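Working notes for the structural subgroup meeting. M.R. asked for a predicted model of this chain before we commit to crystallization trials. I am recording the input and output together here so anyone reviewing the notebook later can reproduce the run.

Input as submitted:
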Amino acid sequence: MVDWKFWRKSRPLAATLSLRSRGDFGDAHRVDFEELAPDIDVFLGQAAYLQLGFFETLSELIAMTPSLEKKEALSRAAGAALTKHEALVGVIRDRGDDPTALMLPFRDATPSSSSIVAISCG
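Returned structure, recorded in token form:
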């Protein structure tokens, strides 16, 4: 019988795993992500504006799409984006803030939906 060794996959050497206690981080450096996170108002304003932008873009695509099947799929995505936007606006209002004021700084920093549609349509 012939031994076809080139058909066999070589087995990787097994790495030895070891457990550490919860407080033992070895030589890892801990990073406090709170320092990197934006202020909650900035985060909520940007997230709400992005969801509104997704809704606008998807709505424009629905109007330009001839296929009824594709329109239906895009409308589900647009509805989901609008639902998320409304939920974020609700959180902003519950915190006593003005959603428009929190979203306004991101209007100029975010590409307009018409430029996104132009790019995606070629």
